[in-house]
Write a structure and sequence with these properties.
Layout: H1 3-9, H2 24-35, E1 46-51, H3 54-64, E2 74-81, H4 91-101, H5 104-127, E3 131-135, H6 142-148, E4 155-164, H7 178-181, H8 191-207, H9 217-226, H10 233-239
Antiparallel strand pairs: 1-2, 2-4, 3-4
The structure holds flavin mononucleotide (FMN).
Organism: Halobacillus litoralis
Protein name: Oxygen-insensitive NADPH nitroreductase
Keywords: Flavoprotein, FMN, NADP, Oxidoreductase
């Protein structure tokens, strides 16, 4: 294994940080790594908002219900961004662009671009010994986050990322076995593999250092998908001019 793969394999989400801000140099390395990710058709259809205002951080912590959104070395919010692509358009051109701006294709493009940039940022941070955790719970109140960050039309927050010097070293969470995520030439049924994974994950939940519980992966997923979740997100995304047609 080389150092890059070792860094990737050591990943675990960090939710407790020392009371130290990350350095300007670390932030620059993280952001330039994010920027170097591949991007669909050179569109670079994302923006990153660094939140340094303590009041805004507290508001976002309240929205997410997660204190580490306030207590960290730095907070980033990754946004899908098709706004800058409209800036040089005449009103006639903007009208012509609208079907593309509003379709699912460009919603996916911008979300994928943001995610690729984010994961490059995560690996860069972890390679420097920093910890990180993604924060999807900014979507608990997407419209409030949108307002707090003053995002224009065609820009939506997708997820946050907390960064900092780790103050905890949680157990690593096991992943699905390769047979459940990699198939050659065609999709394959892998129910049996999932059942085996459930057994090993049940043992993991009972033996880990913190938050031990009786659970399995498939039970977790059934709970997740049988409870309506963030049902307002669809409407908010459409209101911002994404994924409308
Ligand atoms: C897009 C995305 C959103 C996430 N949102 C949250 C979140 O709001 N709060 C949180 O504590 N963890 C969040 N996570 C972290 C996951 O819970 C975590 O990656 C997963 O449980 C696997 O654990 P690990 O990262 O420690 O391996 C998020 C992860 C991703 C990829």
């Amino acid at each position: 294994m080389n150092e890059t793969i070792e860094t990737i394999h050591k990943h675990r989400s960090i939710r407790k940080f020392k009371d130290t801000a990350i350095t300007e140099e670390q932030l620059d390395a993280i952001l330039s790594s994010a920027q170097q990710a591949s991007t669909s058709s050179y569109m670079m259809a994302y923006s990153i908002i660094g939140v340094t205002d303590e009041k805004k951080k507290a508001q976002l912590a309240e929205i997410t219900g997660q204190n580490y959104v306030k207590d960290n070395g730095h907070l980033l919010v990754f946004c899908a961004d098709l706004h800058r692509h409209t800036l040089n358009a005449t009103p006639e051109q903007y009208e012509q662009m609208t079907p593309n701006l509003e379709n699912s294709e460009h919603f996916l493009v911008s979300a994928i671009d943001a995610a690729l940039a984010a994961q490059n940022a995560a690996i860069a941070a972890e390679s420097m010994g920093l910890g990180m955790c993604y924060i999807g719970s900014v979507r608990n109140q997407l419209d409030r986050v949108d307002e707090i960050l003053s995002l224009p039309k065609h820009v939506i927050p997708l997820f946050g990322m907390v960064l900092g010097v780790p103050d905890a070293q949680p157990d690593q969470k096991p992943r699905l076995p390769k047979q459940a995520i990699y198939f050659e030439n065609e999709y394959r049924d892998h129910k049996e593999t999932l059942n085996e994974f459930d057994e090993s994950i049940a043992a993991y939940y009972q033996s880990r250092k913190t938050n031990t519980r009786h659970d399995s992966w498939t039970d977790q997923m059934l709970r997740r998908f049988t409870n309506p979740m963030r049902m307002d997100v669809t409407g908010i995304i459409k209101n911002k001019g994404f994924n409308k047609q």
